[in-house]
Give the backbone structure.
Amino acid sequence: MTALWAVGAALLVGAAVVAVLWRTSRTRNDFLTEAQRITFETLHTAWSAAPPLRAGLVPEAAKKSARHLRTLLGTPALALIDETEVVAWEGGGEHHAAQAVELAGEVFATGRTRAFDISCAEPDCPVHTAVLAPLTVEGRVVGVLAAYSREPSAGLVRATNEVARWASGQLELAELDRSRTRLVEAEVRALRAQISPHFIYNSLSAIASYVRTNPERARTLLLDFADFTRYSFRRAGDFTTLSEELRSIDQYLALERARFGERLQVTLQIAPEVLPVTVPFLCLQPLVENAVRHGMEGKVGPGHIAIHAADAGDEAHITIEDDGIGMDPEALRRTLAGQVGETAGIGLGNIDERLRRCYGDDYGLVVETAQGLGTKISVRVPKYQPGIHAS
């Protein structure tokens, strides 16, 4: 992970240098020194190769990155190869592509850079020597960068090695992005799995109890149940709007009110300004379910749940408070530390981790609770965060 952060930092520094040199060239009428010009062109080429590499070794993206990588090395031809085929060939001598896959097999097997002499009957072919370097992700060879030239040289071997190392960093960042996506999907699936089967059973039982006595209410509750489950199990993305999340919460509470009757009292106070704010999908509904499940159940007499969403300048401040039985603070601490416990709340650690990953460590859950004194959970969400948009 440290290496990945280093690669990311290097890219940011490179982008800054490119921007500075670009501004310098414009403001000084392109009077750059030769060293500045070379630095600018090199960084600009590397920066141009990075986005397609972040898509992985897929043909369309690989073709774009191969063009820039060939420019970096200044070779007549360059190829990107996976375990079965050449995914991109840039430059002349493409009739050597089949041979490239065979030579790459040795690099996949050893994980080491190899140099080869290439024989060719065509007099004008620019391919006479090849340097093949491994592209690695977490120590595993996932591809091979092949640089072709007319003559062998130690400089080409060193340059190909360095470019392959840099490209490996981009591929590793791509894998990190995919791992993050898979992790978020797994976390959402975990939250969905924690939607209590008892809630589903109790909701359907409550709906059934109204079928004869109040058919219209039974129909409304059935629609609420359908909309709630459709939202909870959708596959639309990682983020939603606060408005959509609150709508799902309202449907959930309608079903619980049908079950608890007058025992469940709910207060909502929502500022209209925060309704469009983007929030992680299923970041609030489990907190409300937690308030009902661990607040109401086991409590004698009526229970009250208050949901507030306030406009706080650059942020939306959301609180979910109940006057139920509360939680053991030590059990809560273990849950937020990742030590899951059934009695400590539904998905609290999951949601806390997702909020911190999206917005930073300052934006985790704040939970105030004690046994017998209820629970108050506070959530802060920036109104605008680069790269975060509702699906």
